[in-house]
Amino acid sequence: MSASLILLIAACVYLAIGVPVAFALGLSTITALLISGNFPLIVLLKETFTGIDSFPLMAVPFFILAAELMSGGSLTEVLLKFAGQFVGHRRGGLGYTNVVSLTFFSGISGSALADAAGPGAMMIRMMDKAGYGRSYAAALTAATAIVGPIIPPSIIMIIYALADDRVSVGALFVAGLVPGVLIAVAMCVVNWKVSRDRNYKGDGEHPSREEINRTTWMAMPAILLPVLILGGMRAGWFTPTEASVVAVFYALLCGKYVYRTLEWKAVPNILSRSALLTASVLMIIGMSASFAWVLTIEGVPQIVANWIVELNLNAWTFLIVVNVFLLLFGIFIEPLPGVMVLVPILAPVAAKVGVDPIHFAMVVIYNLTLGMITPPVGGLLFVTSNVSRVPLSDLTRELKPFLWAHGLVLVLLTFVPWLSTWLPHVMGYQ
Known about the structure:
By secondary structure, the chain is mainly alpha-helical. It has one domain (3-426). It contains 22 helices and no strands. It has helices spanning 3-16, 21-36, 42-52, 59-72, 75-87, 93-109, 112-129, 134-145, 155-163, 169-175, 177-198, 209-235, 240-258, 267-297, 300-310, 315-332, 335-352, 357-370, 379-388, 392-398, 400-415, 418-426. The protein is globular.
């Protein structure tokens, strides 16, 4: 039996019995190496460390730290006030506030889980007190938090650029802006429909112009962080990795000297949380690298590529097949290992059938991210259920209209490539 077949069977078994993804990938690699006997076990260590030995990958811990610093500096409250002043008075106002605030926060955190656990948890409590169904508030939060990895800066996009050298981190960051806004609009449409049907009312209070100006001025430093990152990268002032360090210092200055809510005594805790999250991300990346190495050395990417090419699929048919496959794959595995394992296999095939690499990247990232809110394994569902204290069954039931909306957005992103490619090409990315 070939090492690649043993690898895939072992991975399925380990995931089925509930082994965490990173350990499942590592254990399946060890199992394949031991049973096949074709390679020494030292390969696991070598490829694991090779997988994380990358300069662009250094951006991950710094973006995580920047997000933690911003969150520790009362950023959540500032963004909630900023978003609420525009839409809070309308029917379903707190739902709109939830969507808008999570969209803004995603431009800082780059993580769906961080969005749900931070401002999302706060919005669920506020919506519950205002008379919204708690399960509906939790479903809206989980569905909207998907925008976290889409709007830059995004950890998944950094990992994708490492797995496919045809795209750059900067191009992917820019490419995520239009799809991210489109997702937010789709969530607002669902909220409008549900709020009308259930008569969820706004707070009825429209703030004065002076209050709007004051709140906007307070929120401006936080909102400018993504602008600083993208603008600086496009102007050539710094690389994505250097941009992450700039983001850390910017977040520190904002929290300590602009908002004046970040205390030095809170910094050790922030560093500790960032280190733990970074360690978990890097462990997944390292184990995924060794897993992918076995597939590569066995020639699986070439076999799959040749098989698909022989089918004579056109670009659109290929994208439909990939969408179905990734939606099923994403149910059982997290986005990060999904990108590390699948992109080296699928990206070359996409290039052969004529799919734009930026367009394909956004389709893959969005598909795998959707897996976070699809039962039974969706990690975002468990986080949201935990912070909201809503049973998973109730959360899943309320999630249905949002899943339909996400499906429509996915169709648009798949068959309207310029939604992903227009802005990067305008800004000079190819």
